Amino acid sequence: MSPNIEINENRNTKHKKQNFMAQKQTKLPALPLRGIVRIVLLIATIISMFFVPWILVRTWLTPLPDTVQEQVNEAIGLGFDGMIVYVDQGGKEPALYAAGWKNRENKIPADPHSLFKIASISKLYDAVAITKLVKNKRLSLDKTLAGYFPELVGRIENAERITLRMMVQHRSGIPNLTDTPNFWEDPPKNSDDALERVLDLPADFEPDEDYAYSNTNYLLISEIIKKVLGYGNSQYIREEILTPLGLKNTFGSIHDVNMDDVMSGYYVGIEDDIKSVDYGSMIATAEDVGIFLRALNDGSLFDEEEQEIYSSIYVYEHTGLIPGYQSIAKYHKDIDTVVIQFVNTTNFDGYTWNLSEIAYNRIVKILRKQKNP
Questions:
Q1: For residues 326 and 343, what is the distance between their CA atoms, to the nearest angstrom?
Q2: Which pTM value belongs to this model?
Q3: Of 99, 110, 105, 107, the residue nearest 76 (C-alpha)
Q4: What is the pLDDT of residues 103-135, one digit of tens each?
Q5: What is the DSSP string of 63-126?
Q6: What is the pLDDT of residues 248-296, one digit of tens each?
Q7: 82-348, what's its fold?
């Protein structure tokens, strides 16, 4: 065979292979976009499984116990030091549940009647106070922050445009003081110190253009009430809300109570009880909060005009979270039930809040199941 023929045959073979490969490539069906998306989602799901907080999944999927007390007991196994739950079902006597420790060091069992730092749940009380003062023409929802405190013009951006209504509804754009550096490690000593931390900071957004939860709003609201009344909002809340409801276990701060009656508070990684640290929280028992929340939701706190005002400015449930204390206060209309939950363990970098919410939701599921077996 001549070299030329060999070369030609090699060329022919090469061409045949190329034609065959071309035919194979031509016959391969194009992968639809939907298929590509599914593959990408599957890969993303597999990858995300390595980052799933399995303690949350496991807690959520654990079979539901039959009773609230069993669920409260189980919740202690999630790393909580102590828990208190108050349940007020329409037509039934209210019930209290507790598990874990009131004081871990001294091995004092959780007491359902203990006082507790309710943190931002207090905003419900503030909103009720504002409602009553607006109805009595002592406050105006449309008056500006500058109108109440002219000295804040230039110190709080847009003070001349921010109204009381915007502050109540967290639509002011005023920065949140608890987000300022070292707030929890070095809490302010008083209201002036707290406000100083946000003065001269840029606004988060233009007034009434967005929503951002800001504790500064309610610090300023308490100062406005104090200026208008000539005394603190705690006194007004006691006179106009607590006393009419017969609530004797709700207080303005830890300075108004015997600290032995307050449930200890713990932060994960810190051994010491931190209940004596003052973050400016109201103090109350779960029962007192429950009675208040029932009155707020059934309308017995208001006359008709007040009800209309309140409904236009604020919500009917709330949660609370400060170091050592987390709380949930909600009314569930479908089963006519108020459920209050206190947990005295927190970790802002962990899952204690998520676990607390899961435990709460499981309690509500138990109550629904009992009502509608």
A1: 5
A2: 0.85
A3: 99
A4: 999 999 999 999 999 999 999 999 999 999 999
A5: PPPSSHHHHHHHHHTTT-SEEEEEEEETTS--EEEEEEEEETTTTEEP-TT-BEE-GGGHHHHH
A6: 999 999 999 999 999 999 999 999 999 999 999 999 999 999 999 999 9
A7: Beta-lactamase (3.40.710)
